[in-house]
Specification:
- By secondary structure, this protein is an alpha+beta fold.
- It is about 40% helix and about 35% strand.
- The chain has 2 domains: about 170 residues, Serine Threonine Protein Phosphatase 5, Tetratricopeptide repeat, CATH 1.25.40.10; about 300 residues, monomeric porin ompg (Porin, Beta Barrel).
- A 16-stranded antiparallel β-barrel has the order 5-6-7-8-9-10-11-12-13-14-15-16-17-18-19-20. A two-stranded antiparallel sheet has the order 1-2. A two-stranded antiparallel ribbon has the order 3-4.
- It starts with a helix and ends with a strand.
Length: about 650
């Protein structure tokens, strides 16, 4: 059978070559199967007609040099007609040994090897031909196809990239480069290719959709969202595009926008399985685990081995404060896709908070009253079970204030020391309730006292978190407060309420009792709104009001006004360097006033913090802040601080 096919193909080649003779006699040009532009060169003594045995095919290399090619050796053609492939290759290779610039023979060898299923050998032969014609785009395109068939995508991408370099406006080459790049997971190259296609063919909506997909896969989420938005306006009937659009918005962290897109999908196409599956994923990431699980349960009942649904379930269990079940759900994902990037990423996300760790922290504070404070601490956490952990730590504080400032030590010296050591625990009794506490000993200028704390977390709803706590320790504000042995019992009630996916309202009430018989009350109200979720930057804007006052003004080394008021506009930004690294910025500015001021005064503050290694074995935090005209606990109007923290996870 192969012999018959070969005889037919060889006859076709001979007929084709015969037709070329007439074309050459008339001085025509043609592009052969290699894509190399060739012209006929005639001997002068044949009257304008060149017999087959003297046909001369030539190629132009990148520099324009003519590379002559002779006719196919008769022995090679005879061997091919007889199906003697090894012999044919041997003949062609013997000629190439004398004349290695015979592009036609390299391509002939490639055809034979491809016909025999030797795809790598076929690609290698075309590579030799392409090296002889570096400026031939079609030949490099053919080389790329050969590499693809041979399962060598890296080389295929390199070859088609060369074709695009030669002919940058060839849409066929650009599409091939995009497809090969996506095959390799190099989606940024694919997106670039589709963007070039869109510039050449603005009405090519397929390229627009593929650009959106490749941009999303490469992490260019802002471009992807814009492209999807344009595409669904043009093609509102494309159900898959809506789902992909919603998914991309969720990847940007804009869960509100993602749910709005899904709602548009529901109105057009109903509650399909794809809709329910994606909505469950968005709700899980948006920390709405109860609603997410309502959708996940029936989906898993129908398809218990569905990876996407199990993935959403793992996220929902994590945010539902069910760490043991989240870990068990991870094992299911590992069974379904053990080596996938998604499984590895979700494992890091779930397991990092459950790892034992040791943190070392240093901080320096200085203000306009020449008060300085150096703080150093070591804290270790040992995870017994997903719901239970133990901790222990020690800290040292060195405080300095100038003599005569009113903040110096009561013995007239300018410094004071505070040391503290403690052990503690944290146990989650249920998804709604968590209890933590610590007990230790503190020493301040030779005054040794117990220190303790207890806190209760209660989360009755997905969008409502409450915490009640009491902490008792020395009031570490200045050398004077330390040397006087002033201790504070700080009682707090914190509420974090998220009425929807855009707004967050933080409320805190406090009442402190002091060992010097002073009392302090306080209240904070801080609503904010998510205004931007993008590929690299998140931004929340809000306002905050702070009010507090003391019962007495005792001049014990801490700021104790009868009434302090602060009204600030706030901004919270976060630059996403990577999944593991980022930089946050908090800014507030507004008006402050206490009972000693006749009018409100402008104040502002800012704090920058870089986190590096959020999910790695070692995490570094570096930060610092500046405050201007916002009263400090020591009474100063201006202050700054810098800090660093290093966490080792085990």
């Amino acid at each position: 059978m192969k012999r018959k096919i070969f005889l037919i193909s060889t006859l076709a080649v001979l007929i084709f070559n015969a037709s070329l003779i007439q074309a050459f006699a008339e001085g025509d040009a043609y592009s052969d199967y290699s894509g190399t532009t060739c012209r006929m060169v005639f001997p002068n003594n044949h009257g304008g007609m060149a017999p087959p045995n003297v046909i001369r095919l030539v190629s132009l290399n990148e520099g324009g040099t003519v590379l002559p090619n002779a006719p196919l050796p008769p022995e090679g053609l005879k061997a091919e007609m007889a199906g003697e492939w090894d012999k044919a290759i041997e003949v062609y290779e013997s000629v190439l040994a004398q004349d290695p610039q015979r592009i036609d023979l390299w391509l002939r060898i490639s055809d034979i090897e491809a016909g025999r299923g030797n795809h790598k050998e076929a690609a290698a032969a075309i590579k030799r031909a392409a090296d002889l014609a570096p400026g031939d785009a079609k030949l490099h395109f053919r080389l790329s196809q050969a590499y693809s068939v041979a399962g060598q995508p890296e080389l295929a991408l390199e070859a088609v990239a060369r074709a695009v370099e030669i002919e940058p406006n060839n849409i066929e080459y650009l599409k091939a480069r995009a497809e090969t790049a996506n095959w390799l997971g190099k989606s940024e190259i694919a997106a670039e290719s589709y963007e070039q296609i869109m510039a050449l063919a603005p009405s090519d909506d397929t390229a627009l959709l593929n650009f959106a997909r490749s941009s999303a896969w490469s992490g260019s989420l802002d471009k992807a969202v814009c492209a999807y938005k344009r595409y669904v306006v043009k093609h509102p009937e494309d159900k898959d595009a809506y789902i992909e659009y919603a998914k991309t918005e969720a990847w940007r962290g804009d869960y509100h926008a993602s749910l709005n897109i899904l709602e548009d999908y529901r109105k057009k196409f109903g509650e399909t399985r794809e809709y329910l599956q994606q909505k469950a994923r968005v709700l899980a990431w948006a920390q709405r685990p109860t609603k997410a699980m309502e959708l996940i349960a029936p989906l898993l009942e129908a398809e218990p081995d569905n990876y996407e649904v199990n993935y959403s379930r793992t996220i929902a269990l994590h945010y539902d404060n069910r760490p043991r079940e989240a870990v068990e759900s991870l094992e299911k994902l590992s069974q379904l896709r053990p080596d996938s990037k998604e499984t590895k990423d979700i494992r890091r996300f779930v397991m990092t908070p459950l790892r034992s760790n040791v943190s070392i922290t240093s901080q320096f504070y200085s203000d306009s009253d020449d008060l300085e404070r150096f703080h150093n601490s070591i804290r270790g956490v040992y995870v017994l079970e997903p719901e239970t952990r133990l901790e222990a730590g020690v800290q040292t504080d060195y405080l300095h204030a100038d003599r005569g400032s009113g903040l110096e030590n009561i013995d007239g010296s300018e410094h004071a020391w505070h040391h503290r050591g403690w052990v503690g625990f944290d146990h989650r009794f249920s998804p709604e309730i968590d209890l933590d506490g610590y007990l230790g000993v503190a020493d301040a200028e030779d005054k040794t006292r117990p220190t303790y704390g207890v806190g209760l977390d209660y989360q009755p709803l997905d969008n409502l978190y409450l915490r009640a706590s009491r902490d008792y320790d020395f009031y570490v504000i200045s050398p004077r407060s330390i040397s006087l042995g002033v201790r504070r019992g700080a009682n707090r009630l914190l509420s974090v309420w998220e009425p929807d996916l855009l707004y967050t309202v933080v409320t805190e009430l406090g009442y402190d009792d002091f060992s010097d018989d002073n009392k302090r009350w306080g209240a904070t109200l801080a609503p904010r709104r998510s205004v931007l979720r993008s590929e690299n930057f998140n931004l929340d804007l809000g306002v905050r009001g702070d009010w507090y006052g003391f019962e007495d003004d005792l001049d014990h080394g801490y700021y104790d006004p009868e009434l302090y008021q602060s009204y600030m506009a706030t901004g919270f930004g976060y630059w996403k360097i990577s999944d593991d690294d980022g930089v946050s910025l908090a800014v507030d500015m507004g008006a402050i006033k206490d009972d000693t001021m006749d009018n409100f005064r402008f104040g502002w503050g800012t704090n920058v913090e870089g986190t590096f290694g959020l999910y790695r074995d070692v995490m570094l935090k570096l930060g610092g802040g500046v405050s201007r005209n916002s009263r400090q606990e020591g009474g100063a109007f201006r202050a700054y601080n810098v800090y660093a923290s290093l966490t080792f996870r085990f």
